Automatic annotation (TrEMBL):
Residues 1-88 form the B12-binding N-terminal domain. SUPFAM superfamilies: Cobalamin (vitamin B12)-binding domain, Methionine synthase domain. GO terms for cellular component: cytosol. This is Methyltransferase. One of its GO terms (molecular function) is methionine synthase activity. It comes from Formimonas warabiya.
Amino acid sequence: MANFEELSKYVIAGNQAKVKELTQGLVNEGVAPLDIINQGLIAGMTIVGARFKNGEMFVPEVLMAAKSMGAGIELVKPLIAAEDMPSIGKVLLGTVKGDLHDIGKNLVGMMLESGGFTVINVGIDISPEQFVKYIKEHNPDVLAMSALLTTTMLHMKDTIELMREEGLRDKVKVIVGGAPISQDFADEVGADGFAPDAASAVDLCKKLLS
Ligand code: B1M
């Protein structure tokens, strides 16, 4: 019987060894990889987010929790890739300039890969100029930008404007996401779509490329 609650508990505690052990146990039991991620690993990180917000947890603890979640995801990731299909499109993925948050972005990347996309994850703190450079280099079907800060989300607009200036906007679909992003914001900055979570990002990319 899968014990997601215990897994979440060790994510919150930032106990990498236990997270790995329990994740492997669930894998051995034959629990679906996405259930392990959503009901165990992400569920734990969601509680961490709430506690951080309330001042009940502090940055070092949050980082430990994030690392533990990442360790669990690393174990499950190859199993999702194994169910993979041939690539149905190329997505260039990054977190915008000034923003170092990458947990959600990496989840989006993982989900996209498991949904059959080729993902080029260019990392964090990516300026509009760097995004444009990577687009020219990799020729993606979709640019996916993540932002977690209200102060950095405006760089999505700058990036889209620079793409337009460089004649790239019509060639590449743009999707945006992250905790402070909304559909209204996506419309305002001229993105093709907004996804509230990683699973929706996969559906959105499929819809935009169909
Ligand atoms: Co930061 N942080 N943080 N932080 N951090 C938030 C975002 C914050 C809401 C916490 C708070 O105050 N309540 C707040 C932002 C406030 C705001 O702007 N409105 C905040 C702040 C203020 C800061 C600092 C400024 C703190 C400081 O130093 N004073 C600083 C900024 C650093 C920087 O980026 N320049 C900072 C630093 C950090 C850490 C380094 C400690 C760490 C990041 C570690 C890392 O990413 N490697 C961290 C963390 C972990 C958080 C919280 C606690 C958790 C974020 C997270 O990973 N969530 C967060 C509070 C919270 O969210 N409740 C907080 C789990 C993750 C799975 O969710 O990223 O939302 P999320 O991704 C979701 C969706 O949003 C969506 O899919 C994912 C789930 O399916 N999604 C997309 C994300 N990207 C998408 C892209 C898409 C589609 C969907 O398409 C392209």
